[in-house]
Every structure is written in C-alpha cells, then in structure tokens.
Design a protein that fits this description.
homodimer, Isopropylmalate Dehydrogenase, about 20% strand, binds 3-isopropylmalic acid, IsoCit/isopropylmalate_DH_CS (chains A, B), metal-binding (chains A, B), IsoPropMal-DH-like_dom (chains A, B), NAD (chains A, B)
Chain lengths: ~350, ~350
C-alpha cells in the first residue's frame, strides 16, 4: 500500500519544518508496511510576490487526486494576510468541503502550562470547528468608501448541511470519549446565526442520548478554558469561535508549537493536515521552530488514512520525548535544541 | 451638586449587589460634597415573565433625562438569552449611542492570577470595545427553515462613524497611558469588515504620532492575553472581539467578580455603568456575590460625572481591601465572606 500525499510547504517556517519532518514520515510509514509518496507544490507568498497568485488557477484540480494534503504554514510579512489566506489556505478548506476541523488540546507530561496548578495529563479536550463557512464566508462589501458615512458589512453564512455535519461529528466524538459535549455560541447577541446553531445542536442531540450537552457563550468559554480546562471533553464551535478557542486550547496546553489539526473533507476530496501555528516570520531560518505540531498533524493524517498503528506510534514517541527531561526540545517549550535535533531524537525512539 | 442616577437592578444577583452597594455610593458622594439621587426601575426578566417585555415601551425615554445609569445584571434561566439581552441591555447601549465600552483589567495586589508567575500589579491594561454595532447588529435572517437546505445569515455592520469613535478614544487613552495601542482584528479571514477597521486605525494613527500601534489577530490576541498579559496597555476591538477579550482580561486578572465597565454615550444621552459579570443564577440569594465589580463600575461612573476625587477614592479602598490579608473577601476570590461584609469593610475604610 502506498499513499500519495500533496505537500505544500508554504511560507516562513513551513519549509524548514516540513523538510525536517519528511524523513520521519517516510520512516514511520516504512516501519508499518506502507509507503508515502509526496509531491511538492511550491505555492505560497513567494510565488505571489513573483507571479501575482499564491497558487496556479488550476491549483485545486492538481491537488484533487492526492490521498491527502500536508501543509506547512501560510503568511508572509510582505503579503496582506487576507490575500495570502484567501489565495491558498481558505480556498482549499472550502473548495474541498473540509467541513470538519479537528484540533486536540493535550497538556503532555513534561510540559508546563502557563496556568497555575496544572500538570501533564490534566488537560485533554478536542475542538470540532466548522471549517468552510460561518463568519469566514466571503460575503460582504463596503459602501461610500472613504466618506464619513461609509459602512462595511460582513455576512456570516450558516447552512444546515455544514452545521449538521460539524455538530454530528462532535457528538460522535463525544460518544466515543467521555460523553460530554460543550456547545459554544453567542446566541444572546447573534439572534439569527447562533439561535439557528443552537437549534441544530438540540435536534442532533436527540440522536445521542448518552452525550451530555453543556451550552456556553463564547466569552464565558474563553474564560473557562483558562479557569477550568480540565473539565472539557469535546467542544463544538463555528469557524471563528473555533479559531479563537483552539488558539486558547493550544496555549493552555503549553505551546502553539505542539498543536495539530486536521481539516477533514466531507466528500471524496482530499483532507488537509496542518500545524495550528502560523509561518512565524520572527524565527524563520533559525532552525528552532518546533516540529512537533507537524509531527502530530502527520499522526492525524495517518489515522485518517486508516494507518492507526503508525498514528498511535507517533503520538507515543512525542509523549515519550516530552516526558524525558534529557530529550532535546525547542525554545518555545523551554529548551535550546533545534528543529532537526528534536526530529532526530524522535527517529531514534521510533 | 446632585446627580440623578437611574438604577436598573435587573436579574439574578443584580438586586442583592446593588442593594448592598447603594449606601456606599451615597456615603462616598456625601464625603466628597455631592449628592446622588437614585430612581429604581424594576425592569428585567421577572417583568418579562409577568408582562411579556423586559422594559416598558417608553423605557428609553424614561431613562433619557437621568445623568447616568447603573445596571446590576441581566439574564434569567427561564428567559432565552437573546430575548433578555435584546429586550434590555442591548437597546440601551444602542439607543443611547453608547459607542464606547471601556473595561480596565487590573491584577490587584492580594489577588492570585490563574496564570503562573503573575502577581499583583503586573497586569494593567484597558480594552476599548465598540459597543453599538459590528457583529451584534440585529441584521440577518433564516431561509428554508427546518429544511435540509436551510441557511441562516447574520450580518456584521461597521460604520465609519462608530469605528472612528472607538478607535480615536482608544488612541486618546493610549496617549495618556503608556503610548501603546494593540489593534485587534481578523483581517485574514474577514476581508470586508476587518480590512476596513484596519484602514480606520491606520488613518487615525496619523493623528497620534506618539502612540505605537501593534496589530494582532483575535486568535493570537486571546493567546497572548494568557501568554504575556503584562505587555498590553490599551486594546481596541470590535463588539464581539471586545466581548471575548474582556472576559479573558477579567479571568487573567483573577475574577470576573472584580471587572468593571463603562458604556459611554457619544452624544448627550446618558452613559451606563455595569459590572462585566452576569446575573449568576447559581449563587442568587446566597449573599456571596462579589460587590467589587459594581463598586468599581461606580468609580467609573463618578469619574464620568467629573467627580474624580470620589472615583479615585473608591479605587483606593478596593485596592487597600484586597491587599489586606485580614479583610473579608467573597468566595470567588478565595474568601468566605458575604457581599454585605465586603461592602461594610469598604465603608469603614472610606
Ligand atoms: C490563518 C488563518 C486564516 C487561520 C484561521 O483563522 O482559520 C488560522 O488562524 C487557523 O486557525 O488555522
Ligand atoms: C450579556 C451579553 C449580551 C454581553 C455582551 O456580549 O456584550 C456581556 O457578555 C457583556 O460583555 O457585557
């Protein structure tokens, strides 16, 4: 068995991290009796600066036949963010109907949380974030540009189809975990989108009688991720709220450098796996970026391919490494080692 | 000099906290040579449950002639949140053009932050939140209700007028504080509203050459309020982002029970002062609600009335009380005292 993976190294630390992790990916696959073939797409902000587009016009078509996509990072100081993201990351999530964004938050043994009194093993939840619409819909405009009475509007769009998909996926996950789902909304202020969302949750919940549903407003939820992160099991949220809550989840679990994510397609198109961190222009080229978020994103990729033994093994070696006080670690988690050292140590443990 | 204050005790712990704090308000005013007359409006969810409306139809007219409004809390388990809030709190903020929501986050001496390594005095920032439009605009709808192809839309509305008001106010504050403004957006995903917002910030910034502007995406900002809260001075954000960030600000500063807020009118209509916390149905009637958020909201009110000596004094006695290990404190900040005890102790210190 061999899988055909599209790799988009992207911007900033993306290329150096992917380059470091690639041999580990191949070695893990080898060890578990499958092959990984990768095709590199050199898309990103450099391409934009030279050719005026983040990816070619037929970019999605070229990705479509791969079994999955691994993405490094997107974002560049010389390219406006909305250009970079609407030119590459967001069209893939939307174009391939990657409705489900799954982001685990785990405080590993050996990692210090910025929260007082939490130690390894005590935080372990997963956020399911709607990934293709909501507050990220490309709907809106501006009128009377530059005038005193200018107005800008931005419309969030929620379809029942996408909403039911993410909500049902979260219930499935909760049923398999601790049976506890937290539904995040802001229905007190957003009486159309969020009241609709709450209704969908109420409907779907009838199919999952064993799952207890808690409802939290996004402001209270942000606070509670700081105040009582250990009480969460599965959270479900819209695109924007999921964005905020997963960054919070990453920081209370120690570092954005450890946060992995899966963008799962609802149909036949490929899913995409990427670290939650961005392109980190401040540390580009120093060789100190934490590769673990990309390693764990690969673990999510393996799991998606059905190679769960290989996936589990990657989680295991990361766990082992972080728990080992003598193992190399990057500066974001309190060490002084480089990207390559961390990957080499993982390879030894495999 | 005597001021005429409208008091809306509202729901849940609102009445018990306001009742406890009221004598302190009068006493402070007395001590500084001005009078406070209060008129009670018994509006809120109980009224809704009996009469079908949170406030009378001419509610805003009745409030309009007061010098300011003091609000307890809004929210009731038997009333849907969007009904309670759209029936009372939000119409006042909008109807009186209270465009500026000002929320200080201070980690007081004697208060333990949930963040490792922070102690009293180390966190001190203020968020200026747009308060009348943005993501809270009452614009949207649902089509194909209940069908598979149902769609719900919610439109955020940003006017240049309101955006410039909040941005300019934040720059003014930054110029008077440490000269450091953090502009929160999500321009990488919301290319209409947030790109507009960034443009307004860039324009207004030219009037304030001494203020350094940092730009942060809301997801990164949420993380940074946990990772490096000490580095913030003044933040400016939209209605929704301000909502999330001020709850985060409250929790990293120890407790929502200490967080005060001012809703400042841009024109002649009255401003409103309220604690950031909600109606807290779980502790209603137990007499243990923390009154300090309401006391500090009163301090913001005094300041707004031009009674800055009285305002300063209230901040001072709260600071003193919290720094005193023998002073009574409520359970949310690690004590066992009741609302009344805390207020009585403050009165003694005055
Ligand atoms: C880069 C940005 C558009 C993206 C998002 O908001 O989804 C990122 O923050 C993420 O969480 O993957
Ligand atoms: C109650 C709710 C509508 C309100 C808001 O979102 O503004 C509250 O959370 C606040 O922060 O004052």
């Amino acid at each position: 068995m061999s899988y055909d993976i599209a790799v988009i190294e992207g911007d900033g630390i993306g290329p150096e991290v992917i380059d470091a992790v690639r041999p580990l990916i191949e070695r893990t696959a080898d060890g578990y009796g499958f092959g990984i073939e990768t095709t590199n797409y050199g898309w990103g902000s450099e391409r934009y600066l030279e050719e005026g587009a983040m990816m070619p016009e037929d970019g999605l078509d070229r990705l479509a036949d791969h079994d999955a996509i691994l993405l490094g990072a997107v974002g560049h100081p010389d390219v406006p963010d909305h250009v970079a993201l609407h030119g590459l990351l967001l069209p893939i999530r939307k174009g391939f109907d990657q409705r489900i964004c799954k982001r685990p938050s785990v405080l590993f043994e050996g990692i210090e949380s910025p929260l007082r009194g939490y130690s390894g093993g005590e935080i372990d939840f997963v956020v399911f974030r709607e990934n293709t619409e909501g507050e990220y819909a490309d709907v809106g405009g501006r009128e009377h540009r530059g005038e005193d009475h200018e107005v800008a509007v931005q419309t969030a769009v929620f379809t029942r189809e996408a909403t039911e998909t993410i909500v049902r996926t979260a219930f499935e996950a909760a049923a398999e975990r601790e049976g506890h789902l937290t539904n995040i909304t802001k229905s007190n202020a957003q009486a159309y989108s969020m009241v609709f969302w709450d209704e969908v949750v109420a409907e779907v919940s009838e199919e999952y009688p064993t799952v207890a549903v808690e409802r939290l407003l996004v402001d209270a939820a942000s606070m509670d991720l700081v105040r009582r992160p250990e009480e969460f099991d599965v959270l479900v949220a819209s695109n924007l709220f999921g964005d905020v809550l997963t960054d919070l989840g990453a920081i209370v679990s120690g570092s954005l450098g450890l946060a992995a994510s899966a963008n799962l397609a609802s149909g036949d198109e490929p899913s995409m796996f990427e670290p939650v961190h961005g392109s980190a222009p401040d540390i580009v080229g120093q060789g100190v970026a934490n590769p673990l978020a990309t390693v764990l994103s690969t673990a999510l990729l393996f799991d998606y391919l059905g190679e769960s033994a290989a996936s589990d093994r990657l989680w295991e070696v990361v766990r082992e490494q972080l728990a080992d006080p003598n193992a190399p670690r990057t500066p974001d988690v309190g060490g002084e080692a480089g990207t390559e050292d961390v990957v080499a140590d993982l390879a030894d443990r495999l």
